[in-house]
UniProtKB/TrEMBL annotation:
It catalyses: (6S)-NADPHX + ADP = AMP + phosphate + NADPH + H(+); (6R)-NADPHX = (6S)-NADPHX; (6S)-NADHX + ADP = AMP + phosphate + NADH + H(+); (6R)-NADHX = (6S)-NADHX. Residues 228-508 form the YjeF C-terminal domain. This is Bifunctional NAD(P)H-hydrate repair enzyme. GO terms for biological process: metabolite repair; nicotinamide nucleotide metabolic process. In the C-terminal section; belongs to the NnrD/CARKD family. Belongs to the NnrD/CARKD family. InterPro entries: Carbohydrate_kinase_pred_CS, CARKD, Nnr, Ribokinase-like, YjeF_N_dom, YjeF_N_dom_sf. Residues 9-221 form the YjeF N-terminal domain. Homotetramer. GO terms for molecular function: ADP-dependent NAD(P)H-hydrate dehydratase activity; ATP binding; kinase activity; metal ion binding; NAD(P)HX epimerase activity. AMP binds at K419, G420, A421, K422, T423, G448. The gene is nnrD. HAMAP family: NADHX_dehydratase, NADHX_epimerase.
Length: 509
């Protein structure tokens, strides 16, 4: 599903209005009416009848007047409050404000602190609040009386429907600009905005509904570079009858150390359960027997080691195994030391096959990342690993996911899976994909190792790096969502995610 930033939204609106000739007031009418219909649905479901609409100075406020007019016509008890003076409103918003004034709908200004008590009383008496204060036109942070209004609404514990975007939420980053409305539902216009899809925006938006307001889809397809990954985007091909394991790829996983054999297990098992034809697992010699005893479907190799950790001497064995494989994953549980660092660096330098780099393979390349440039590589860092790779703080990464991901791939021309509560995938071509599956139960040790195995399996089955990353992340989250139905979020382990991979994949057929 295409996602548009506020700037791109303005561009498509401009083309729709100026080039195509769709009157802007029609778009506002559609936006307001679609929101009014959502509010009506809530009122009918709960047998309620009283709504207040808080409108700001711009077109978001204009949508609010249309909501008021429609609800009033349907017999709802409606009151409108402006966060600005009536005289400050212009354009389409003014046309719609005049209409509700002419209809005799209650309109009051809340522009001074002493007005707040009227609003407080109205909020108490209302059932639903419509937030039409700011939409995609918000600039900077919210201060002054609007901040008081937003805090009053948030404390009221009412059903809140936000028009386009919760006021105060940055439509592009999902950051809170000073304060923001905590909506129960957001009716967003025509295209979903990125800020509604990542944290903390997700927590403020509530349920998101995309409303058709009459802007042609093709306009967005021409400029959009951000996508929400939904089940429609990750349909799996049916396996052909006349095939054998050789058709589904040979993956080599280089993982594990004496204290982290589990990481190697989870990764290899994740790959085999995602349909990889043959999985080979290279671990330090002393870890081989314990791994082999637990993984019947996987061929294991015990390589040169020092104290239970792969040593640099393993390089020639690894390169030979790589020659005999289609795709490679390196990293889970390797641990971090000088030998590992040089081993990983030399492997990556010599490789020309698709590779997934995770965990300690990422740590190994800190400070000399140039070696990945332009290779068929997928990196899967969480924010901590990304921080080590880029030198940025984890908060800086979390608050600017898209920008950080885009800057990284512009520089290194690889595929990036930036893991988090909302995982973001950035592709070589500069597109960003936001995942829609997964839950906090997956915040558990080993969960990322399973993901690496899954992405590797899709690569082995011939998916491009971009598609392998998108499918891997989506079905990993889906397996976690199915696991939640059985074990809940507290008790979920990486093994629970593994066990539900088959059911997750069945959803894609
Ligand atoms: N265009 C279209 O065709 C359609 C648009 N639609 C709707 O319009 C919305 C966009 O409307 P918009 O561009 O008027 O911006 P909006 O979000 O109402 O806010 C801007 C106003 O707020 C003010 N302001 C901003 N930041 C501030 C701050 N920190 N603190 C204080 N004030 C601040 C700013 O004032 P200024 O600083 O410019 O004086 C300006 O007046 C969009 O989200 C959708 O709902 C739909 O109807 C479909 C058709
Ligand atoms: N709150 C959450 N919601 C959804 N997914 C999550 C959440 N927390 C973690 N995850 C997912 O779990 C995985 C954790 O990976 P990682 O941190 O590498 O774990 P490990 O190194 O222990 O294997 C990632 O795929 C991440 O997206
Ligand atoms: K709003």
């Amino acid at each position: 599903m295409i996602v548009l930033t506020s700037k791109q939204m303005r561009e498509v609106e401009k083309i729709a209005i100026e080039k195509i000739g769709i009157p802007s007031i029609c778009l506002m009418e559609n936006a307001g009416r679609e929101t009014a219909l959502e509010v009506k649905k809530i009122l009918e479901e709960k047998n309620l009848n009283s709504v207040i609409i808080i409108s700001g100075k711009g077109n978001n406020g204009g949508d609010g007047y249309v909501v008021a007019r429609n609800l009033y016509n349907w017999g709802v008890d409606v009151k409108v409050f402006l966060t600005t003076s009536i005289g400050a409103i212009s354009g389409d918003a003014k046309v719609n404000l005049d209409a509700i004034l002419n209809m005799g709908i209650y309109v009051a200004e809340i522009t001074q602190r002493e007005h707040l008590k009227f609003l407080e009383k109205a909020i108490k008496e209302s059932n639903v609040i419509v937030d039409a204060i700011y939409g995609i036109g918000l600039k900077g942070r919210i201060t002054g009386i609007v901040k008081d209004i937003i805090e009053m609404i948030n404390q009221a514990n009412k059903i809140v429907v936000s028009v386009d975007i919760p006021s105060g939420l940055n439509a592009d980053t999902g950051k809170i600009e000073g304060c923001a409305i905590k909506a129960s539902k957001t009716v967003t216009m025509q295209f979903v905005k990125p800020g509604l899809l990542v944290y903390p925006g997700v927590d403020y938006a509530g349920e998101v509904r995309v409303a058709e307001i009459g802007i042609p889809y093709r306009l967005a397809a021409e400029i959009g570079k951000i996508y929400l990954v939904t089940s429609e985007d990750v349909k799996l091909p049916k396996r052909l009858g006349d095939t054998h394991k050789g058709n589904y790829g040979k993956a080599l996983i280089i993982a594990g150390s004496k204290n982290m054999t589990g990481a190697a297990y989870l990764c290899a098992k994740g790959a085999i359960k995602t349909g990889c034809g043959l999985v080979k697992l290279a671990v330090p010699q002393s870890a081989q027997s314990v791994i082999q005893g637990a993984l019947y479907e996987v061929i294991t190799y015990g390589l040169e080691e020092k104290n239970g950790i792969l040593s640099y001497n393993a390089l020639s064995s690894v390169l030979k195994l790589i020659d005999e494989s289609d795709v490679i994953a390196i990293g889970p549980g390797l641990t971090h030391d000088k030998d590992i660092s040089q081993l990983v660096y030399d492997i990556v330098k010599n490789i020309d096959k698709p590779v997934v780099l995770d965990a300690d393979a990422l740590n190994a390349l800190v400070g000399r990342l140039e070696v990945i440039q332009g290779k068929r590589i997928i990196l899967t860092p969480h924010y901590g690993e990304m921080s080590r790779l880029t030198g940025l703080g984890t908060d800086e990464i979390k608050n600017n996911l898209f920008e950080v991901a885009k800057t990284f791939i512009d520089r290194y021309k690889v595929t990036l899976v930036l893991k988090g509560a909302k995982t973001v995938i950035a592709t070589k071509e500069g597109s960003i994909y936001i995942n829609s599956t997964g839950n906090p139960g997956m915040a558990t040790a080993g969960s990322g190792d399973v993901l690496t195995g899954m992405i590797t399996a899709f690569l082995a089955q011939g998916f491009s790096e971009e598609k392998a990353a998108i499918h891997g992340v989506f079905y990993h989250g889906k397996a976690g969502d199915i696991a939640r139905e059985y074990v809940g979020e507290y008790g979920m382990t990486a093994m629970d995610i593994l066990e539900n991979i088959p059911d997750a994949l069945k959803c894609g057929l």
